[in-house]
């Protein structure tokens, strides 16, 4: 379970998150929507530990640990997948090797045995197949020359291999491309189960046609101002965010 309590964060002098409270139980998928500039991306960056964001108050407890105290790689070892952890282009580095290194780093931290090349490839091929991807993906250099859709696919492949307990996704750019949305939805839906939860931050209601959330939250001016069932997303689509501003 993820429990965010009274989270305040700022960029420079500007307070962006102004007391976010949010609980995501195991097995549930929660969506965060909200007007442009509300702080949605800031929330995902703070949870991922990106530089430049200062947490001034509050905590984010996952499995009994305040993840805000952990280095990004330790957050991954704790079972959290953060979408922009591995977005870089790495010329000369094969995707399979890169994924195996990332996976083994997490396994080491968890005290699990590392996977050798053969064992890894077996898992990777199964994940590639489950995501309806081409196998040559594993041979390409990491993200080099990948289209937007291919980068998304690769991200979902990383997620499938790492088998996180909690995925935090901020779908900022992919909203324009319906194929990319479906790739993300397939990746999340494939992991659905009692031990998996996700926080899907989206600027676009239509992602939620493909990932049906258990709960929808509205973030406005740095606070959750409303939470409700999946139908809330449709209501927001029809009526907008007017009248939902934080006090
Ligand atoms: P959302 O994802 O909901 O559209 P953001 O988290 O991107 O919102 O932005 C929240 C607020 O923080 C906005 O007012 C934005 O202008 C401001 N902001 C975002 N990034 C920076 C930055 N690097 N420096 C200063 N202000 C920023
Ligand atoms: Mg924005
Ligand atoms: Mg954003």
From TrEMBL:
GO terms for molecular function: ATP binding; ATP hydrolysis activity. Keywords: ATP-binding, Nucleotide-binding. The keyword Ribonucleoprotein does not apply. Residues 2-246 form the ABC transporter domain. It holds the Pfam family ABC_tran. The keyword ATP-binding applies. CDD domains: ABC_FeS_Assembly. Gene3D superfamilies: P-loop containing nucleotide triphosphate hydrolases. Belongs to the ABC transporter superfamily. Ycf16 family. This is Fe-S cluster assembly ATP-binding protein.
């Amino acid at each position: 379970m993820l429990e965010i309590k009274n989270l305040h964060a700022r960029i420079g002098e500007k307070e962006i998150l102004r007391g976010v409270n949010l609980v995501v139980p195991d097995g549930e998928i929660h969506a965060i929507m909200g007007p442009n500039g509300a702080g949605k991306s800031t929330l995902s960056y703070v949870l991922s530990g990106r530089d430049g964001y200062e947490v001034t108050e509050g905590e984010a407890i996952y499995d009994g640990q305040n993840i805000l105290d952990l280095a990004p790689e330790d957050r991954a070892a704790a079972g959290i997948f953060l979408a922009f952890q591995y977005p870089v282009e790495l010329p000369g580095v094969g995707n399979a090797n890169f994924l195996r290194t990332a996976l083994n780093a997490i396994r080491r931290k968890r005290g699990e045995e590392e996977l050798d090349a053969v064992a890894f490839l077996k898992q990777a091929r199964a994940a590639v197949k489950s995501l309806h991807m081409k196998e040559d993906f594993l041979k390409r250099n990491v993200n080099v020359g990948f289209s937007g859709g291919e980068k998304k696919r690769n991200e979902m492949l990383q997620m499938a291999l790492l088998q996180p307990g909690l995925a935090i996704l901020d779908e900022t750019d992919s909203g324009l491309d319906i194929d990319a949305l479906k790739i993300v939805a397939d990746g999340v839906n494939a992991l659905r189960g009692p031990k998996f939860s996700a926080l899907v931050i989206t600027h676009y209601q239509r992602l939620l046609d493909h990932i049906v959330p258990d709960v929808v939250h509205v973030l406005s001016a740095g606070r959750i101002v409303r939470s409700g069932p999946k139908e809330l997303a449709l209501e927001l689509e029809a009526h907008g965010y007017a009248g939902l501003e934080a006090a």
